[in-house]
Every structure is written in C-alpha cells, then in structure tokens.
Amino acid sequence: MKPHRIVPAPCAGAGAPSPLSATGRPLKWGVVSTGRIAQKVTGDLALLEDAVLHAVSSRSSDSAAAFAARFGFSTSYGDDGGTAGYQRLMEDPEVDVVYIATPHGQHFEVARAALHAGKHVLCEKSFTINAAEAQELADLAAERGLFLMEAVWTRFLPSVTRAWDLIDAGVLGEIRWIQADLGFTAPQDPTSRLWDPAAGGGALLDLTVYPLTWALGSLGFPDSVSAVGTLNDDGVDVQNVLTLGYDSGAFAQLSSSFVSSCPGQATISGSKGWLRTGGKLNNPSELVITVDQEEPRTERFEQIGAGYAHELREVTRCVQEGLTESPTMPVGDTLRTLRLFDDARSQLGVRYPNDDA
Ligand SMILES: NC(=O)c1ccc[n+]([C@@H]2O[C@H](COP(=O)([O-])OP(=O)(O)OC[C@H]3O[C@@H](n4cnc5c(N)ncnc54)[C@H](OP(=O)(O)O)[C@@H]3O)[C@@H](O)[C@H]2O)c1
C-alpha cells in the first residue's frame, strides 16, 4: 500500500489543464449563504468556464439579492414566510449542484434538504457536527445516487499534490514524525459562529481538518488519538493538541487554536529528510525540502484566485462523469475524520446541541 491515504487530485498534477478551462456540460450552481466564505468561493466559482451562477439563498432576501447582483446570479431566495431561503433554492429545478457555506451547525439540515431535492452537494467543513449526522447524509446520497463532498479544498491544490508525489517517491524516506498547526487570535465576539456551541464553535471543528490533511496524506488514518485542550466557559475548545499514533511507530502532532497566533506550518519528517510548507498549510505557496543534510531546496507554486478553483473543478468533473464522490475527498474520509473528532471531543469534554438532537 502507498504510504499516503489521499489520492492525488487529477486536476492538480503536473501537466493538468487549467482548472478554469472548459470541460463540457455547464453546471448550474446554487450557493447557500452570503457569508464570508460564500463570497470568497463564489469569486473563484465565477472564474470557471463551466460554472453557471444560477441561484443564491440567504436568510435575508436583501442580502441574497445583493449577493446575486454582485456575482451575477440569475435568481436569489430569502426566507419567505415559513419557508427558508435555502429550502426555496432546493425547490428550483434549474439547480444542479449546491454549495453549502452556512456555519457547521446548519450543514446537516441544509445538506439533507439538498439531497432530498435531488441536488449534488459540496458542503463546507466541518461537514457536520458529528459522525452520526455525516453517516445519515452519506446514506442518503448513496441511496439517491448523488454526488456528495466535504469542501476540503487543500486536498486539491497543486502544492499539496506535489508533496504527496515527493513522499510517494521516497524522497523523505520512511515518514515517522509530523507536526502541523493552524491558529489565530479570534476576536472575542459572542455573536461569532467561532464561539457559538450551536454553530459547532471551537478550534477543533473549525481548523484541525487542515493539519489533519498533512497527517492523512503522509501516513493515513491513525491507530490511536489522544487529545488535550482548553475550553471556555461555554464548553467550546479555544485550543487543542491531538497526538495521532501509528502502529508503525510514527506520530503526528496536530494543534489548532483560536487564542494563539500560530505559524500555520506543516513539517513532515522522514528517515532521509524533511519537508516544510511555506505560507499557511491550508494553501501552501512553497514546499521547502531538505534531504541528506544538504541545503534546503524550495519549490514555489502559483495561486489561482483564492485557491478554490481546483476543488470546484473536481466537483465539476465528478458530476459530469456521474461519480457520486471524489476519489481525492471520498465520503469515507469525511466519516473517519468525524469519528476521529468525536473521539477527540469526548476526551476534551466538548458537546454540542446537535449531539443531543
Ligand atoms: N474552506 C474555507 O477556506 C473556509 C474558510 C472559512 C470558513 N469555512 C467554513 O464555511 C462555513 C461558514 O463560515 P463563514 O466564515 O463564512 O461564516 P460566516 O461569515 O459567519 O457566514 C455564515 C453564513 O451562514 C448563513 N447562516 C445560515 N444560518 C445561520 C445561522 N443560524 N447562524 C449564522 N449564520 C447562518 C449566514 O448567511 P445569510 O445571512 O446569508 O443567511 C451567514 O452569513 C463554516 O462551516 C466554516 O468552517 C471554510
């Protein structure tokens, strides 16, 4: 078996065509939410030749209309009487694929509505609050033959795909030790989703998927996990450290924080050398490779848009080819990740309202 568990993204390998170029049948997109990441990802979606910006929904009709006007969507839906804006978007027969960018606490209900309406789904991380919710969505998508993917865009970047190639080629030797962190000092805003238990607030669900990507790509899923962290008065984790153990004797130490300004780097160490990300580990602009105690060598990568085009290209490819999941970000990886996070949360003592739903 190859030493990593993440299948390299076809759209990001050497010689792959631009993710923006036309591939065939256009896809009509519906975007749920007008929040921060919805704006960033939609900016990249608009760059793709095959993307038709069809509909956007929001809790507010005004917000949906302003977003539609800004990005060029044909239609917008806000909450109307007893019907949520996102529900109205699901009832639009023109929408092929839905991108969900609400807080994590709402992902389950919106994705379930999309799948019931026969839409393909790209859903932001954290995919759901827990593995039970994710399993229900996975079963529903499988039953209906619909595409479903968690939006872990980092897996589709050329820099990250190149790292897997180097590891696969044995450049670093046997991988034995990984350190990866992501964190920032989040404003103490009680209205922010970052701190809200109902939204799935906390550093683990918000950030750890990115450091984890480096462990999964280098060593696969671990054989054990131990977690320590600090909770605030609402029981939300403000920072945490996970140690992943592997039967091979390898370890990965992952940390995420809302109270520390962190470098946001991954270091992959093997028996022959190490690789370090330059820029943030969720969107590296560089890989610095040091082997056999020689001088470090740096590879640099150009960014397209805000970095989401490769992920969006993969969704387009999969839907066009009738795939129900992406080999690079399969639903099974999302389920295993959420089981790992459930385990870590029980060690940290973090529970959310969705856990009791
Ligand atoms: N892939 C990435 O790089 C990346 C980066 C940041 C965040 N994310 C993920 O994207 C999701 C959204 O994050 P964000 O930073 O965009 O959050 P945000 O700025 O707070 O926006 C979330 C939006 O969701 C909508 N919403 C629907 N129900 C809501 C509710 N009950 N409470 C609050 N908002 C609600 C709101 O839009 P309307 O007012 O239009 O309804 C709100 O503006 C999170 O799951 C996060 O983890 C991903």
UniProtKB/TrEMBL annotation:
It comes from the Bacteria. Residues 28-149 form the Gfo/Idh/MocA-like oxidoreductase N-terminal domain. It holds the Pfam family GFO_IDH_MocA_C3. The keyword NADP does not apply. The keyword Cell division does not apply. Residues 162-276 form the GFO/IDH/MocA-like oxidoreductase domain. SUPFAM superfamilies: Glyceraldehyde-3-phosphate dehydrogenase-like, C-terminal domain (SSF55347), NAD(P)-binding Rossmann-fold domains (SSF51735). Keywords: NAD, Oxidoreductase. GO terms for molecular function: nucleotide binding; oxidoreductase activity. InterPro entries: Gfo/Idh/MocA-like_OxRdtase_N, Gfo/Idh/MocA_domain, GFO_IDH_MocA-like_dom, NAD(P)-bd_dom_sf. Belongs to the Gfo/Idh/MocA family. PANTHER family: OXIDOREDUCTASES, TRANS-1,2-DIHYDROBENZENE-1,2-DIOL DEHYDROGENASE. This is Gfo/Idh/MocA family oxidoreductase. The lineage of its organism: Bacteria, Bacillati, Actinomycetota, Actinomycetes, Micrococcales.
